[in-house]
Structures are given as structure tokens and as C-alpha cells.
């Protein structure tokens, strides 16, 4: 009836499922609610300390492991106890049964006298305290003797006695099977365990029958439960001890990790503060450098204008007055006046050259290529020498401080090439590769002495090199000089 009720309830549930729409999705609110619950649970789990999270995970893993270990040990102990009890009971029963079955080696049956003797043995008080039922099986599966006379001379399947016919003692502490030959024992309503033991011929040792008997299992079950309880107590105690030890170890490690995290967080904050401070300082330095470059150019322009409007005009006036004096001078004074005129003319020319060199043209709207062509052209016009330009691909646009720096760099190095190498082999090379701008000015002169490239002594040449280096490095560039007997190359490199 119970099985029918369960089957009917399953059928009703299946019918109810079929009445629903198979393609209808779950309600949106239900899906959202599940997602919110999972998020909330995940957030609560993350809020726990590492030691608590570890104990929870370790408890689950170690608990499952110990559960399987406890089950395995309990099962092994139960099997060992049952088998040991069965071996002892089999030895005990063999002593009583084997003398009565020796005649089966000749007739394959029991005589009436043997049956009566077995009945008296089964009814004896000493045996009945432990053994409640006895059966003797023939090798073909026929019960030739049984406490339950209703199954005597009946044949049953050989499944029960197969192992015993091979010489093994077989025992079972589980519930009795739903078979006719166990009906008498099931009606006793008490815990039993059945034992199958081979019965042998006393002369040859051959198995001539199988003895089956049912022994009361009350004391055995109590002993097994006691041992099983002890096993679980030991397993639980060991598990709890391991969890406690692991908890304190992980808790100590967690405290160390927390202290290190606090220290690292403080260091990170300090590093962040220093990084921001350095970035601010770098920004101020870059701004100051650009402002200094602008002010420097304005100063140079003002000096150039002052030279043009001051000394140049005075020298021009001197030359005019000398022309007036020359008309009224004697032949002896004429030679002195010519000497003064030549010196004044040279001074005026040099002042004008200095003025033109200090005053930059308007280069803000020029590209780098046009700027390099302009500075080379002006140098050629002023010195009468030739400058070769070798230019690769250059950036389309560049900031004004960089343009001013490049103009002054090329202008000063070309002046040095004209002054020290007589303008021989003057070459300007410029290329832009992998976001790096390389500018170099080379001449074909005899090169520079090693001490001439030092920047720690005075002198016009060294002051010019120092100014070039400071100008390039103030914009974050790299400055270098390569000099040999075949010429000198002054290089500047900027990462854009």
C-alpha cells in the first residue's frame, strides 16, 4: 500500500508538471531574488576572517574524510567481529553436527535415529540459549534436516550454500531474506545472524553437507555498537583536535598577514604620497625649465636688440665722423684714420653678427624640417660655408621649448664647426624612430682633445659645450660627443 501511495504521488507530480508550459522561463523576480541571495551569501562569506573561512572549509573537508574513515573502520570492525563469532560458532557446531552426518558419505541421507538425536540436541537447554534454528543441506540444495520440519526434504537454490561447499564459513548479520526457507526464523522477531559451515567426512576430509544455524545476535550487536560508538568518539575527538590545532595555526598566520597588510598598506600610502610629490615636483621642474627657456630667449633677444640699437649705432656714428675728419686731415693722419676706420668696421660687423645670432626668427609656425633648413641656410649665409642636411621622417609638430632648444643646439654646434674645423664636412642628421628624435651635427675637422670635452674648467669652448648639455638635459634629453681624428659629432636625443 505504501509503495502504491508513493507511486500515485509521483504520478500526480508528473501530471502537474506536464500541465505547465515547458518553454515558459522562470519569473524574472525569482531569478533576481536567487541572484541577490547568492550575492548576499557570498558577501557574508567574504566578510569572515581567513581563520574562520579556513575552519569552515577544513571542517567540511575533514568532516567528510573522517566520516568515510569512520564508516570504513566501523564496517571493518563489524565484519571482523561477525566473522570471528561465526568461526567460533562454526567450530562449536561442527563438534555437535559432524558425528551425525558421517553416514551421508555412504547413503547421502540421514537415518531416523540421527534425526531424533539432532532433535534432542536442538532442544537441549545449553544449545537453545544461543542457537534458535539448525538446518543441514545436501550438496544438491536439499534440506535433509531442519528445526522447521516444514522445509525438510525440500530443494532450494544453491546461492546460500555455494561458498560453504567450497570450504568457507559464510555469515550474515543483515535482515533475513524474503525466502520460504527463512520463514520460521523471521517469525521469531529477534536479531539473528545466520552461519553456513561445511561439514566434512572424518576419514577423507571431503565436504559431505553444509550446516546452517541461526544464532542470537543481541550480545554481538551490543558489542558491535559499543565498538562503533568508541570508534566514532575517537574519530570525532581526533577531528576536533586537528581542527582546533589548525585553527590556532591559521589564526596566528592570519594575524601575521593582517599586520603585514597594514604595514604594506602604510608603505603603499607613503609611496603613493611620495609618487604624487615627485610628480608634482617634476611638473614644477618642467614648467620652470620651459619658463626659463622662454625667459632666456627673451633675454637673448633683448641683448641682441640692445647691441643693435646701442653699440652698433655708436660705431656707425663713429664711422660717419671719421669720414668727416678724413676730409680735413693731412697725409700723415690719414693712415691712422684708416686704421681706426678698419677697427670700427670690424667691430660693427661683429656686433651685427652677434645681434643677428642672439635674435631668433619666428619659428613657432615652422616644422622641425623647415627649422633645420632655416638654421643651416643662415649659417651658410653668415659664414660662406656649405651645410649638408640628411633628414628622415620627423614629427609633424613639436612644442616650442623643444624647437628653441634644437635651434640653439644646431646653431652653436655649427658655430663650433666653423670656428674649430673651418666649416669642413658640416652635416646635420635628423631622424625620428620608435618615438625617439635623434639630432646630430658633424664636422670633418681634426677632432677634439680629450681634456677639451671636460666641463669642469673655464674657457669659451667648454662653456659652450656645457651650455648645450644643460640645455638638452633640461628638457629630458641625452647629450653626447663623439670625437676622433676624422671629425667630431655632437648628438642630442629626445623621447617624444
UniProtKB/TrEMBL annotation:
**Which intervals hold domain Histidine kinase/HSP90-like ATPase?**
406-495
Signal peptide feature range: none
Give the UniProt keywords, A-Z: ATP-binding, Kinase, Membrane, Nucleotide-binding, Phosphoprotein, Transferase, Transmembrane, Transmembrane helix, Two-component regulatory system
Q: Where are the transmembrane segments?
A: 54-73, 231-250
Q: What is this protein called?
A: histidine kinase
Question: Region Disordered: what ranges?
Answer: 1-28
| Enzyme Commission number(s) from the entry | 2.7.13.3
Specify residue ranges for compositional bias: Polar residues.
Answer: 10-20
Q: Its Gene Ontology molecular function terms?
A: kinase activity
Annotated Signal transduction histidine kinase subgroup 3 dimerisation and phosphoacceptor domain residues: 301-359
Species annotation: Pseudomonas monachiensis
Which Pfam families does the protein's record reference? HATPase_c (PF02518), HisKA_3 (PF07730)
Q: Which reaction does it catalyse?
A: ATP + protein L-histidine = ADP + protein N-phospho-L-histidine
Highest taxon of source: Bacteria
